[in-house]
Fold this protein.
Amino acid sequence: MSEGDKPSGGEVNAQPEDEPKKPNLHAQRDRFFIRVRFSEFGKVRFISHRDVARLFERALRKLGLPVAYSEGFSPRPKLSFGLALSVGYESDAEYLDVELTEKVDLKGLAQRFTDAMPNGITVTEIIELDAGAASLQQAIVSCIWHIEVLGMSIAEMEAITASTMAATELPTERVRKGKTKVSDVRPSILGIEVVGPTENGVAIAAHLATEQLSMRPSELLVLLGIEPDQEGRITRTHQWMNLDGERCEPICLSEPSSKNETRDVFPGAFESTDSDTQADELHGVS
Amino acid sequence: MTTVWPQLEPLLPRVQKPARYIGCEDGAKAKLPDPKLVSWCFTYPDTYEVGLPNQGLQILYEIINERPDARADRSYAPWTDLEELMRSHGVPLFSVEHHTPCNEFDVIAFNLSAELTYTNLLNCVDLAGVPVRTADRDDSHPLIMAGGHCTYNPEPLADYLDAVVLGDGEEVVGEITDVLVKHRSQPNASRADLLVALAQIESVYVPSLYEVTYDGPSVAAITPIGTEAQSAPSEIEKRTVADLADWPYPKQQLAPLTEVVHDRLNVEVFRGCTRGCRFCQAGMITRPVRERPAEQVRTMVAEGLERTGYDEVALTSLSTADFSDIADVVTDIIDDGDKADKGPVSVSLPSLRVDAFGVGIATQLQRAKRTGLTFAPEAGTWRMRQIINKLIREEDLYEAVDAAFANGWIRVKLYFLIGLPSETDEDTLGIAELAKNCVAIGKKYNNRASVTASVGGFVPKPFTPFQWFGQNTQEELQRKVDLLRDATKKMRGVNLKWHDPKATLAEGIASRGDRRIGPVIEQVWRNGGTFQEWSEHFNLDLWLDAMADHGLTVEDAVYRHRTEAEFLPWEHLSAGLHKDFLWQDWQDSLAEVGLEDCRWTPCYDCGACTGYGIEHVVASAKPPAGGSQGTGQDLASGGAVPVVLLTSSERQSATA
């Protein structure tokens, strides 16, 4: 190995972010970005966000994609995820942006990606992304959650949601960064709808804000007075971005546009059940 | 098929790290439960993160699943939060593949790598719904077996284990399966018949077929019982796989979904060690050295990286930089990684030699990421290092540390033992001196240079020259820790870390105990003492109370020097090493006489090769560059040493 190949330590923490932009190595190279949409159902819902990131890193290596790496002593592949999915929650709408050093052919890539991931994680769509596109972290403003509440009737659930939605303010104690603070969380609840009965209870779809006063499904359930043991499956069905006042998904699944137009506030709230069972069957447990 | 998944699933959102319990690893075998197949559940008695990477279990798991007449799953000790829920909801211990209850397997086989996991073994057996004592089990229960380094003294668990395997498991696991297959075809054969049949397999020890007589604090004899003299052998020999090339396992190392310790590809490059460090049980019991052919190492690395997507591979062994021709092997691996063009690959050697050669390799290897550098001089003075036969000169260490700091590392870790035979305070304080001098070297290159000295209390182990040595008392070890704390307090850049002397004492109770220690371990477990390897759960009082309740003392069990004439509790077992060789080495040690690496010098007749008619197997005629560490030996003559040389062409013709 020649001298020149050694990692050069000087580049670690080379530039504070607020310094004026200087031409650097990154700028001199061409960079390409892809955005990946994936779902997470079944047993894999018990792995952490960090675990998902590690699995994608390994999958990218298996596929041999030309991933861009960070500089320095410990080069890492340049991946950026949207909002973390809590351990135990499923999702139909997870996103990942990958920086590449050259263009790749996207045809068939989603399937190859899925094959390189564990059962239960399915890559549903991959698109090319403009280099200047807003990052997922910046752009996501709200999520829709499909929440099963066990041991409750539709009527009971409707009464609870109606009174919650009717409230003009909901002062709530919240712990953020180790500090307890009372805030009005009513603006974070953008909508709740009872979607229908399930085998063991009732399902609701909740549209919750993720910026400023963000709200988690578990916090909503506490607010609605639902006990922890009544919490059933929780699935993220959508993440919404706000681009110049327009609400859109980071990747809209390729569906007939007419269907998109007819979607109501909580489209596809029940779409998850099929793939859910499917994922478990793959593990031989049914 | 039975699965506890429907009962388990609702419990998982309520526990920490539920990913521990879902299996789904890349490489996992999904051979479905089938009553026609002999079934093994390989179990590690600690958490999933600690147990999953265990290579021994992964090797046996693959070997069994390759057989048409058998299948294997894996299981791990559930953390205390899940255990509590499992007990309150009636969920038994399960395998992670199919969540099958463990008591539905023919065998639950444990890997025993650490004494402080013994209480977890009992807990796992109990959680599986199996009586913890062998005497209480019947035909409906699985066999409870164990293998691994701790089984070289299985006596503390003798009343709890149906059978124990000594040494390499690759061959024995198949021979046991053969016996189990045959047993199934004999519906009238009892569990007792099965145990006798197992005892006929070389290297399988069935403790219930032996009786122990005592002589005060020591054992008088351990002899086979039963009317038939043939019921069990009077001495059980360890098993040694003659050539690792025949066993390229694991072929599909498990890549877990969640982070585990050693989260990387691991390729075992050799087994055995001939350095002869006198404190090191692993080095003594795994002799002779058997290197994997370099070409096979290269293939296993390339295929493993390709399949798993890992960016790091560790070449594992007891002292990897001693692998013949290691420099060429790692160059090849790096070249292969470059050719595959799938991102930077780093190669790590978990045990680095204390010399500049080792650092040179490390610098070359760690491309993808730089972890810390660790050296193990083990003792603070040359006198002490002669006693333990870790023949590293001070200048070797300084040269290594200089090379490390010069190459950009800013933190270096040094491992030491305290409580070694004939240790004086000067020897103990030598640790602080070495660390201080290393920091001074580091400051030449970087003002932030620091050295962590990690200090562990020495626990004498069976089948080592130190097996006769009385362990330092808890108070003495604590005093030595305090000496070092005082000495390093004002040394800038020196961080001291130490292992709790209380835990060292508990480890000592189990390490050289006889069967009288069994009820102590059982009581510790019954009083809630699981996960004793974990500081947040370790409780010495549980151990001391249990000792007192059974009329035993730590003075007799741990602190007492054993005599030459004494029958040791593992004397009916054999690691191949002659007792007189070990005794002589113990005497040499006390006389401060070192012993050179026997791979490159004439045979000392320790017994490990000669007793089994096998020899060291090395992959290349080229000895490792840089000399055999600190022994002052000229390795230019390496090609002429009395070892078997394996070149790839010879191998092909041998197997053809």
User: Anything to note?
Assistant: Chain B touches chain A through 40 residues (CB under 8 Å). The first helix of chain B runs from residue 5 to 8. Confidence is low (pLDDT under 50) at residues 626-656 of chain B.
